[in-house]
Amino acid sequence: MKTKNKKSGNTVYKTIMTIIATAIVTSIITTVWIYGSVKLTSTESAIGSATKSSTLAAKLAVIRNKIDEKYIGDINENDLIDGAIKGYVSGLNDVYTEYLTKDEMSSFTEDIEGEFVGIGVYITKDAEKNLILVYGTIPDSPAEKAGLKTGDIITSVDGVECNGDDYDTITNSIKGKEGTKVKIGILRDGEELNFEIERKTVEVKHVTSQVLDNNIGYIYISSFEGDVSNQFENAYSDLKNQGITSLIIDVRNNGGGIVDESLDIAEMMTDKGQTLLIEADKSGKEEVIKSEKDKTITMPIVLLVNEYSASASEILAGILKEDVDNCTLIGNTTYGKGVIQTLYPLTDGSGIKITTNQYFTPNHNTINKVGIEPDIKVDDYLFTGTLDKEKDTQLKKAIEELNN
Question: Is residue 311 flagged as an active site residue?
C-alpha cells in the first residue's frame, strides 16, 4: 500500500493536447483524447540497451552506408537518429508509448506545468482544405488580446507563407523568447489581416464556475493539468461563500491530466483512509493509493461525464461513484483509458514514454477499454465545451436530480 505523495517522484501525468511553448495545440482535434496518463520519473536519465541491439545496429549500418553512397540530398544526423528511434518505438503498436525528441520533451513538460511562454492560440489542421485553422485562444492571452478568433486561417508567420503542409513545423516559427514579437497573417471572411503579437508567459485556466438557479454551484474542469486542484478549491470556496447548497462538477470532454490533481480533488469529497486508486505493474504487483485528508465537501453532488471523459477524469468518476454516497454520475459511459505511461528523460534532453501500469477503481473495477457507467444515462446531447443551459439535457437532468 502507498499513500498519495506528490513529492515521492511518482506523480502521474497525462497530456490531452500537445501545447507547444507558443501555446499552440498541434494535435488534430479528433485525436485529442487518446493520450494516456504519465508518471514523471525525473531521476531516470538513461534506458538500458536492448538484448538485440547488435542486430539492430548492424541493419542500421547497412542502411546508412547505402544512404551515404546513393542519397543526393542533405543529411541531418540528428533527424536520422530521432526518426530511427521513433520508428523503432512505434513498432510496439501502442498508441500511448512514444519517443519524444528534445523539443517535444520541452513542450511536454511546459504543457503539464500549465504555464509557458507563447501567444496562447489553439490551432488545428483542416486536412480537406489543407489549411491551418485557429479554433480558440486562451483567455487573457496575447492572441486573444490581439484579436485572433476561432475560424481564422493562418496564412503566414513572419512573412513566410504557410498552409496545411507546414502544420508540423509551424510552431517552431511562432514560438520564441518572452518579450519578442511574431507577425501572424490570417484570412478572415475573405479579408487578409496581419497581427504583430508579443510573446508572454501564458497561464492556462482549466476551471470555470458559476451559480445556477436554486443555489446550485457549477464547476467545469477542462483538464487536470497544471495547478487545477487549487483552482478547483478556490472556485468551490467562492461558490460556497455565495450560498450554494449543492454542486455540479463537469468533466465532459476532459481527456485527463495530472492524476494527482484528480486525486486531490477527490480527497475533498472522500473520508480519510478511503481507497482512491489501485495500480498494477507488469508483474501484477499492486499499489493502493488512499486518501490522506478529511473531506471538506459534504453537500449533494452530480458529476457530469461523457464519452470523451478519459484517464484522470475516469479516476475521479470511479472514486465519486464508488466512495461518495451523496454523488450521482450523469451522462454517457466514459472513454475507457485505464493505463499509465512512465516518462523516462534521457541525458540529451529527449525521452521515452512507455505504458507501464494499469489502474483500477477503488472497488477494483477495470477502467481500460470499459469506462465508467453513469448512474443516470443521458446520451442525447453532445457537449461542445460551452455551457448551453437551454439545450444541455445532461445539465438539465443534473439540476433536476439536485432539486429532488
Answer: yes
